[in-house]
Amino acid sequence: MSDDGLSRRQYLSTVGGTAVTVSLAGCFGGGGGGDDGTTEITAGTAPGFPPFEMKEDGELVGFDIDLLEAVVDETDYTLAGWEEFEFKSLIPALTNENIDVVAAGMTINDERDETIDFTDPYYSSNQAIVVREDGDFSPSSLSDLSGRPIGAQKGTTGESTVQSELIEPGNLDESNYNSYGNYVLAVEDLQNGNIDAVVIDEPVAQTFAAQRPVVIAFTYETGENFGFGVREGDDEFTQALNDGLSTVRDGSTYQDLTNKWFGQQ
């Protein structure tokens, strides 16, 4: 990533569920432009999903942050800044033209594809079930979660898994499900004994397990793919991002970022 990419990081803290505006530049839907004549775009993300996006010493960092900056650097667009939201608010922010692209470990699925478009996939994942390291609960399948207080982040594949695989079939009472604005809060509740398990994307679970007294009990295969979210109809921008992503993948940058944030792959 270029030095210019690093200098753009002027972030503020998220307060509640409201967005934090990092740049006053308009989204390209409103015609914002850089000094060099390029079109400026604003990205949106949801911190609390390490190692994809998180705050360290007040700075927004992570795999998604570095990857999108590298991808945009390969296009004729300029990344003006980032805005932070709760995950469930990202798609409305995109469709309302408050941001131009979502970089937040967002799974490509049919429901979201009805409202927004996606770039080509940039990462694949499954769901992991995380429990306390020193606890006596050791589930090995989703059915073992029946009757237990379970947590996930609002609007995520983890929440969808709980709803479709446990609550809807009648294997888990709705009252046993706890939703959170971000996974940091969910894992903290797990550590404090308020819930017995968290359903979360596997690479994020691995990061929490390396940093906190929690472990992955088992993995539930979903075969999901992450993509950058874009507005429907922004075909030129979407193609530019796809071309930039392809360039980043073909070179060493993608592997370098993968090694940086996930360890040697």
UniProtKB/TrEMBL annotation:
Classification via SUPFAM superfamilies: Periplasmic binding protein-like II (SSF53850)
GO cellular component, one term: membrane
Keywords in alphabetical order: Signal
Region: Disordered, residue numbers: 141-164
Positions of the Solute-binding protein family 3/N-terminal domain: 40-265
Domain Ionotropic glutamate receptor C-terminal intervals: 40-264
Compositionally biased residues, Polar residues: 154-164
Pfam families per UniProt: SBP_bac_3
PANTHER family reported in the protein's UniProt record: ARGININE-BINDING EXTRACELLULAR PROTEIN ARTP, MEMBRANE-BOUND LYTIC MUREIN TRANSGLYCOSYLASE F
Listed name of the protein: Amino acid ABC transporter amino acid-binding protein
